[in-house]
Amino acid sequence: MKYFGTDGFRGGANESLTAIHAFRVGRFLGRHFARGKRPRIAVGKDTRLSSYAFEYALAAGAAASGADVYLLHVTTTPSVSYVVRTEGFDCGVMISASHNRFSDNGIKLFGGDGEKLPEETLALVEDYLDGGTLPLATGADIGRTVDFVAGRNRYLAYLLSLPRVSFRGLRVGLDCANGSAWALAKTVFDALGAQVRCIGVSPDGTNINEGCGSTHPEGLCELVRLHALDIGFAFDGDADRCICVDERGEIVDGDGILWVCAKDMAERGVLGSGGVVTTLVSNGGLSRALERMGVVCTRTQVGDKYVYEEMVRRGALLGGEPSGHIVLRKYATTGDGILTALKVAELVLARKCPLSFLTRGYVPLAQKKRDVPVANGAAVVQSEGVRAAVAKAQEAGVRMVVRASGTEQVVRILAEGDEEEAERAVRLAERAVRESAEAL
Questions:
Q1: Cys-Cys link to 274, which of 31, 262, 314, 374 (CB 3.0-4.6 A)?
Q2: CA angle centred on 261, ends 256 and 265, rounded to 5°
Q3: Where residue 375 falls among pLDDT bands split at 50, 70, 90?
Q4: How confident is the model at residue 378, as a pLDDT?
């Protein structure tokens, strides 16, 4: 698609993604969901400086098309999904570029079922963005905006209703990435009785994800070690990701979280026959560990929306990505970082053992990764040089994935296998990507 990638329409704020784009997306949504009635659209945003401009631009466009827009203000992506599917909204919008730097922003769209809008609808949005026309609402048909903090509070109440044990006495570290979770996550863990220490809770509009959060969990590791905490959780900018830190200050990524949850669910007989859904970049050690336990592991495209779609097809209840998008289908239709943190904390307490013990049985294979900035990633990964590099790696017994990012202008390279061979394969692929980018 031209504008929408694996997780919404994303780009440099007022560069490749402008407030005018936001206005036109709002115009489209307000008209598309009318269907003989006044549509209701829920809108949330993260803490980026540009999120305010995009929020109001989108709301103005939707109201101009005749929709009522309910503003959740600073909130998490999964809260928008929850509010839409439980409060009878026609669609939902999250203004966020997730884990990207503050100068980027994005628009994520949800249908009335709380799931990401299908690509057929996104194609219609793109057609309108490229010059389509729509009539404006007039008179009493013009929409309005409504303050809807109550919706966010209902989401918090939902999260608080989920744990089956008290968190009293549990020492928890939280890294909220100076983003959407900065107030919500601590509120939840405090209410459940945990002893909470936080970092990444001073958003200023420009420091979201800056050296913190799920993409930079080193600070949380230090916090856990320094204060002898039981566990730590790092979220990304819009809190749909969660990376854990065990009591030793060691990182447990999304694959490790999937293993811990899958093992528990399988032992309790609630995992179901659909097994676990992962992606192409998930560690091969996870699939081996699951298969030893008799659990089916299915890989799909990178992106939590693809994970969820495959989960629905297979009837799976658990899926996710190493980045920390964990989908617990019994509770949510998208990745939810705070929900994931609650369920892992609950497991630690219910099993009466530390997280490092729960991860036993999963031995990750060696992986090497590179991100190469390129403007034409889709073409680069199909080039003859890149394909030759991948083929050579496979001949050496290395599993190689080279793909254009759906959220940033980079080509992501992953090599898995023998550590030395994987490093050699990554270097070869990186060189091929750079040469192909220059040649195109």
A1: 314
A2: 150
A3: confident
A4: 87
